């Protein structure tokens, strides 16, 4: 029996397939019918030039997401903002464009009643990130908490201590999102990360990999020791969602298997909770 409590997924779970990409509004019914009640909306769709979220149809598209939420009795527990791949290297015009997209996604998420939105830190120091996110929060139109994600390489913000410094400085408008796949690549002790971040940990990206590449696999298909990770979630007092971000797991599979993949992910979530 699948235990739905505390298991959620980013809407990109089966966004990629042999036939190409699909949007959130096309995928949400598949996940709901497979058994998901809680979802993380992937506003990284805005990184695609043809996204309706970048057009005059944006309000209509967000409205369709609200209708799907109501129709299927869903909870949108988290969202993911678009991100600059190398913010420091962007010209001023590029920085403004990136900031606009992130702020717009924050507005959409707040409109949909989502409590927090995951954001990527920029390359550089904790102080640089504090200034960067403070400027975004000052410009936001709708209040929403940001969850700052740990990165996978030394050029970004990886360590729990850096994330805690940023989140503490921006409290109560910021918390931390643990990406288990990124932490595994960075050589972080994931259970220690969970215990150190404590109450600042407000969201997760649960994904597995081989410790070398950001493969975004479902748990059990990589080399993370999930028994140790789940023990840390239990002993730390974390009561948030275990939220899958595993969009590359099925990217070479046909779309007709999407429902089966979603159901498999829920069974894997059931296994995680049993630990």
Structure description:
The protein has 275 residues and is an alpha/beta fold. It has one domain (7-274): TIM Barrel. It has nine helices and ten strands. Strands 9-8-7-6-5-4-1-10 form an eight-stranded parallel β-sheet. α1 (24-34) runs parallel beside α2 (58-72), α1 (24-34) crosses α9 and α4 (126-139) runs parallel beside α5 (160-170). The model has no long low-confidence stretch (mean pLDDT 95).
CATH homologous superfamily (4th level) name: Divalent-metal-dependent TIM barrel enzymes
For the record, the CATH class is Alpha Beta
Summed up, the helix count is 9
Could you tell me the CATH topology label.
Answer: TIM Barrel
**Main sheet: strands, sense, barrel:** 8 strands, parallel
CATH architecture: Alpha-Beta Barrel
Offer a quick outline of the entry.
With 275 residues, the chain is α/β, with parallel strands linked by helices.
List keywords for this structure.
two-stranded antiparallel sheet; 275 residues; alpha/beta
List the helices and strands and how they pair.
Blueprint: E1 7-10, E2 16-17, E3 20-21, H1 24-34, E4 38-42, H2 58-72, E5 75-80, H3 92-111, E6 116-119, H4 126-139, E7 145-149, H5 160-170, E8 174-179, H6 180-185, H7 190-197, E9 201-205, H8 226-236, E10 242-244, H9 258-274
Parallel strand pairs: 1-4, 1-10, 4-5, 5-6, 6-7, 7-8, 8-9
Antiparallel strand pairs: 2-3
């Amino acid at each position: 029996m699948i235990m739905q409590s505390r298991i959620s997924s980013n809407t990109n779970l089966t966004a990629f397939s042999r036939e190409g990409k699909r949007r959130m509004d096309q995928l949400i019914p598949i996940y709901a019918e497979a058994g998901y009640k809680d979802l993380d909306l992937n506003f990284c769709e805005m990184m695609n030039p043809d996204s309706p979220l970048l057009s005059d149809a944006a309000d209509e598209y967000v409205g369709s997401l609200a209708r799907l939420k109501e129709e299927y009795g869903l909870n949108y527990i988290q969202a993911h903002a678009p991100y600059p791949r190398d913010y420091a290297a962007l010209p001023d015009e590029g920085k403004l464009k990136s900031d606009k997209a992130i702020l717009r996604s924050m507005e959409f998420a707040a409109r949909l009643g989502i409590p927090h939105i995951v954001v990527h830190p920029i390359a550089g120091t904790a102080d640089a990130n504090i200034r960067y996110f403070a400027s975004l929060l000052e410009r936001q139109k709708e209040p929403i908490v940001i969850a700052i994600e740990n990165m996978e390489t030394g050029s970004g913000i990886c360590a729990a201590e850096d994330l805690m410094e940023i989140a503490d400085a921006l409290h109560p408008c910021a918390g931390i999102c643990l990406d288990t796949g990124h932490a595994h690549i960075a050589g972080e002790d994931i259970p220690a990360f969970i215990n150190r971040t404590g109450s600042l940990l407000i969201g997760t990206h649960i994904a597995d990999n081989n410790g070398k590449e950001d493969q975004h696999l479902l748990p059990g298909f990589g080399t993370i020791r999930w028994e140790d990770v789940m023990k840390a979630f239990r002993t730390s007092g974390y009561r948030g969602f275990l939220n899958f971000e595993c969009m590359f797991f099925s990217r070479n599979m046909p779309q007709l298997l999407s429902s089966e993949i979603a159901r498999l992910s829920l069974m894997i979530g059931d296994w995680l909770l049993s630990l």
